Amino acid sequence: MQVLERGKYASAMKRACEAVRLGSALCQNVQLQLKQAEAASKSDKSPVTIADYATQAVVAWSLQRGQGGGPLQMVAEEDSEDLRTEEGASMADRITELVNNAVAAVEPGSNLSRQQVLDLIDLGQHQGGPEGSFWVLDPIDGTRGFVGMRQYAVCLGLVDQGQVVLGVLGCPNLPVEPITPEQGEAGAAEHAGEPGYGCMFAAQLHEGSFVGPLQGDAPWQELQLTDHSDFSHIRFMESYEKGHSDHSFTAKLAKALGITKAPLRLDSQAKYGALARGDAAVILRFPNRNYREKIWDHCAGAVIVQEAGGIISDAAGTPLGFGRGRWLDLDKGIVTSTPKAHAALIKAIAQLVQEGHEPA
Ligand SMILES: Nc1ncnc2c1ncn2[C@@H]1O[C@H](COP(=O)(O)O)[C@@H](OP(=O)(O)O)[C@H]1O
Ligand SMILES: [Mg+2]
Ligand SMILES: [Mg+2]
Ligand SMILES: [Mg+2]
């Protein structure tokens, strides 16, 4: 941990790592036991599980405990509205049980009520913006991957005066060795907790980006990307879910640039961690044009990539704005890569669009 205990945000980093570890352990326990009935559908048709809610509560509990008093400022994905209805009551009870089991590992004997757990979940309603500092939490990013036994990540960032200053990713199913396209497609959940699986990424602005084990005490390693733009050797990553990013547009872009390697398709911000350690050199994301990106889907990953020497921007090359509220309003898509490849990608995207090949 020593390498992370430096810089302006050292104590926040320590609290963030503790909270993400606790949340990741909870997720890992739930993933293999998840029953269909414990997943629900949100109003936008995206799935949410008992583990999304429970992890949000546990991370909020851990951060609040660590900061010692004062209100927790947090922008987080989930809210308790559906759990406060009659139909949501049994789900809320399951969540309360999970939260209490996790909390007991840190504070034996503590017992939160259902009401307290729902209130913890609702600590994530901060509106974000350019002033002050606030945590940004995606308790489970890649819920579809989580339900499908693939990749997912517990993602926690800190924004100060509109800038991401810290990010931590817990990736319980990510192999310690570089992940291959075959492993990306295959279920990974059965390996969670085995030696060789489970990574944590952490970065602080101006203090570097690191990878370490989710469990155990193997040392942290600093990450530094090697810059190159030889697309014939480059692999790109994209969402596993076709509905989250236009795979046919990225295939056209890959062809235009001479990328011949098969894409690595992974769920969640595990992609940002994988890029920072060099498993692949590019991440492409082109959601449907009506989709509005949220800050918690990219906040932690962005600083982890940038501190490793990578660049993240929208498809026009403009840096992402994390200080404009809960959403990231951006042009077309998100492009993340090493610097030389980034410049070539932005140019190639503009060229394709000019030729009439708009992303869906
Ligand atoms: N139609 C859509 N287009 C783009 N992104 C979407 C989407 N529906 C959901 N998402 C977002 O995509 C995230 C997962 O990204 P990825 O495809 O990289 O795994 C989801 O995070 P959650 O799983 O936290 O809800 C969700 O915020
Ligand atoms: Mg979600
Ligand atoms: Mg997400
Ligand atoms: Mg989520």
Automatic annotation (TrEMBL):
The enzyme's E.C. designation: 3.1.3.7
Entry-linked CDD domains: PAP_phosphatase (cd01517)
InterPro entries: DPNP, Inositol_monoP_superfamily, Inositol_monophosphatase-like, Inositol_monophosphatase_CS
GO BP: phosphatidylinositol phosphate biosynthetic process; sulfate assimilation
PROSITE patterns assigned: IMP_2
A GO term, aspect molecular function: metal ion binding
KW Metal-binding (keyword) present: yes
UniProt catalytic activity: adenosine 3',5'-bisphosphate + H2O = AMP + phosphate; adenosine 2',5'-bisphosphate + H2O = AMP + phosphate; 3'-phosphoadenylyl sulfate + H2O = adenosine 5'-phosphosulfate + phosphate
Keywords assigned: Hydrolase, Magnesium, Metal-binding
Broad enzyme group: hydrolase
Record: residues binding Mg(2+): E77, D138, I140, D141, D297
Nucleotide-binding among keywords: no
Cofactors: Mg(2+)
Similarity remark: Belongs to the inositol monophosphatase superfamily.
Record-given protein name: 3'(2'),5'-bisphosphate nucleotidase
Natural source organism: Symbiochloris irregularis
Organism phylogeny: Eukaryota, Viridiplantae, Chlorophyta, core chlorophytes, Trebouxiophyceae
